[in-house]
Amino acid sequence: MKSFTIVDYAAFGFWILISIALSYLVVRKFGFFGGSRENQKTLAIGLILGHLLYLVWKTLWLLIVN
Where are the alpha helices (DSSP H) in 1-66? Predict the structure, then answer.
């Protein structure tokens, strides 16, 4: 079975940083979703959880293909 590579783990690490930066820009700088810190945290967590869901899907796909 193919497994995750260091690139996958590095991409996830970068995605966490990108999620935090995106949520800051979208919520605080552009004022979307009310501009509160709680909304910023919620957006960042949502983006990170979305990427985790992708990783789970990729794992299942690799299991199905092999």
Answer: 6-23, 37-65
